[in-house]
Amino acid sequence: MSAPRATPALFVTLGMLYFAQGLPAGLLGKSMPALARDAGLSPEWIGLLALPALPWALKFLWAPWVDRWGSGKPNHRKRWILACVFAVMLVLAVTALFPREWLFGSGFALLVVLLFLLNLFSATQDIATDGLATRLLTPDLRGLGNSIQVNGYKIGMILGSGALLIMVGHWGWQG
After folding, report:
1. Separation between Cα atoms, residue 74 and residue 99, nearest integer Å
2. d(Cα 121, Cα 161) in Å, to the nearest integer?
3. Residues 40, 125: Cα–Cα separation, whole Å
4. How far apart are CA 74 and CA 103, in angstroms?
5. What phi, psi does 120 have (nearest 5°)?
6. What span, in angstroms and rounded, lies between the C-alpha atoms of 14 and 146?
7. How far apart (Å, rounded) are the C-alpha atoms in residues 64 and 41?
């Protein structure tokens, strides 16, 4: 079976999927350390906020499983992507239920776990999205696809960090 013809809608979709992956990276890499400093956390504890990014380095361990489990069924990768995007939204909603002061204090372990789950779901979405892009883009369009991937991710990362800090300053943590 041949790959469908690449259309502008496909590139927009891929750009948005990679954008969605960049949001948690910006949150973890830029916003959380700033919020932790603002909450009075010591540099040692702020350094621990890098641990939840571990799924990105280890995703090769479960990538074959994501590629195989459910393969051959219609929309195999789309189901993975939708489940992961929903899980990311759920983790963010659960995180917002707790007061910032508590998360950066006695609830710090829970914050690390929630951020780990956020990264686990985002890294898994990345596996499925990369597989989808590889299947849908012909070899001559993969360079453009890769550019969209990098730019979508970086824009998501920038907006994820900047927008969160602006929103927390304006509406508060739980808003």
Report:
1. 42
2. 18
3. 33
4. 41
5. -60, -45
6. 10
7. 39
pLDDT tens per residue, range 22-38: 887 787 778 888 888 88
Give which of 114, 88, 96, 93 is closest to 174, Cα–Cα.
96
Residue 152 CB neighbour total at 10 angstroms: 22
Question: Which amino acid, one-letter code, is at 72?
Answer: G
Measure the CA dihedral 38/43/47/49, to 10°.
-20
Q: Which residue has the tokens 């929309």?
A: 75
Alpha-carbon distance of 65 to 123, in angstroms, equals 13
| pLDDT digits (tens), the chain, 175 positions | 455 566 788 889 889 988 988 887 787 778 888 888 888 989 989 999 889 989 999 999 999 999 887 676 767 888 999 999 999 999 989 998 999 889 999 999 999 999 999 999 999 999 999 888 888 888 888 888 889 889 998 999 888 888 878 887 787 776 6
**Residue in the structure block whose two tokens are 């006695």:** 106
Tokens of 53: 């990014």
Query: Radius of gyration (Cα) for the chain, nearest Å?
Result: 17
Distance CA 39, CA 172 (A): 13
